[in-house]
Amino acid sequence: MSETRTRTIGDGERRARLAVRHRLAGVARAVTAEEVGGSLVALHGTDPASVFLAVGARLAGDAGPVAAVERALYEERSLVRMHGMRHTVFVVPSSLAPDVQSSTTRPAAVRERTALLRHLAAGSSFDEAWLRETERLVLAELAVRGEATGAELGAAVPRLRETYVYGPDTRQEGVQSVASRVLRALGMEGRIVRGRPQGTWTSSRFRWALAEEHPAVPAAEARAELLGRWLAACGPATEADLKWWTGWKVTEVRAALAAVGATAVTLAAGTGFVLPDDLDPVPAPEPWAALLPALDPTAMGWQGRDWYQDPGHRAALYDRSGNIAPTVWWDGRIVGVWAQRPDGGIVHRLLADVGGEAERAIGAEAARLAGWVGDVRVTPRFRTPLERELAAP
Fold first, then answer.
1. How many CB atoms lie within 10 A of CB 247?
2. How many CA atoms lie within 13 A of 328 on its CB side?
3. How many CB atoms lie within 10 A of CB 100?
4. DSSP string spanning 312-365?
5. In this structure, are residues 344 and 373 in contact, taking their beta carbons and an 8 Å threshold?
6. Buried b (16+ CB within 10 A) or exposed e, 117-128
7. What is the pLDDT of residues 252-274, one digit of tens each?
8. Closest CA to 12 of 230, 275, 331
9. DSSP-based helix, strand, coil % in the chain, nearest 5
10. What is the spatial distance between Cα 179 and Cα 46, in angstroms, rounded to a whole number?
11. How many C-alpha atoms does 50 have within 13 Å on its Cβ side?
């Protein structure tokens, strides 16, 4: 790794970089959903609503993101929903999908198929040949239909309605659907993709469609491309941050750092890395406010978060599995939690005294959010105690 220059990047500058590169400061807001997706590298997609809320928080003006995100996802396919880092569903720019698939999803897909065959062998009479034929029938059906829900595919391909016993003779024993595992495996292998859901933009009842074939990218090359894109958006970052975000082995992280010529810098948290052309100071923009959704890629971007989050607020921000609540931000720090009540009102609770200017700016962001969400009700998939309390009637 290059060591041509070494300098210290303080927490304040890290917050300035975050504000500009993550499109959160007023002067940095984006015009299109694609701009947001490219700036953030990957939007958390486990909770479908989070994708729209994350884009909406970063767009200029008061117009909502729903039409723009739906067009990008379902018409132009400039953004793609796929399994990615840490077995999580993300929305990524289509140009980056081959690198995510090769560097991260493909190895996980191999493990998923191995596990599925093992579970079928232990809990049913189905074997690899049966699975291959079932998948062939599913792909053939999608080729005719274009798109179909899991239920529609189950009606057309009866094999998908079969069940098997998961974990026989163990505490985890239970009956599971073949359909969910088969569709998951095909999706992870990049052979099918989630399309437009039934219902509103908050729905997870996705239709499935045949996926476009990704060009084959060597795994090491793909890891270097993905890590370089992420460092450009999120650097500086520690080795621990990189290993956590990618889910790769430490040897793979170090090889990718070397491949992009990453430069070591000094952080309050220890040694961090930036791209070799990213050493110039970044001035702080004007103070800014944002209401970011649960699982937002900024809030969940680094393993070490003390530089933008008070460690004493952890209990108010996370559930027991480490999923973050919808957060209130002021000038690069998490300062509160927000929620939507059943009547549609956007409410928040501050965890620190931020002053009158900040409170007015946060209130304006809450009003902007309420304006475009309209009659839709948004409930995070993973709920935290404080979010539940705020959302209560």
1. 17
2. 28
3. 28
4. GGHHHHB-TTSPBPPEEEETTEEEEEEEE-TTS-EEEEESS---HHHHHHHHHH
5. yes
6. eebbeebbebee
7. 999 999 999 999 999 999 999 99
8. 331
9. 45, 20, 35
10. 19
11. 27
Q: What single-letter amino acid sits at 132?
A: R
Cα Rg of the chain, angstroms = 22
CB atoms within 10 A of CB 24: 23
Q: Cβ–Cβ contacts within 10 Å for residue 350, how many?
A: 15
User: Phi/psi at 147 (nearest 5 deg)?
Assistant: -140, 150
For residue 180, give the DSSP letter. H
CA proximity to 157, closest of 140, 137, 184: 137
Beta bridge partners of 349: 337
Which domains, and CATH codes, for the chain? Answer: 1-77+218-393 (no CATH), 97-210 (1.10.10)
- Find the Cα–Cα–Cα–Cα dihedral 76, 60, 324, 273, rounded to 10°: 90
Which strands form 79-83's sheet, in the order they lie side by side?
43-44, 89-93, 79-83
From the CB of residue 205, how many other CB atoms can be counted at a distance below 10 Å?
11
What does the pLDDT average to over 218-240?
A: 98
Q: Which two tokens stand for residue 386?
A: 């404080």
Q: How far apart are CA 40 and CA 53, in angstroms?
A: 14
SS3 152: helix
Q: Residue 244 phi/psi, 5° resolution?
A: -65, -45
Q: pLDDT of 15-67, one tens digit each?
A: 999 999 999 999 999 999 999 999 999 999 999 999 999 999 999 988 899 99
Peptide bond into 393 cis (omega under 30): no
End-to-end CA distance of the chain: 55
Q: Taken in order 64, 68, 69, 74, is the CA torsion positive or negative? A: positive
DSSP for residue 305: -
Distance CA 295, CA 285 (A): 25
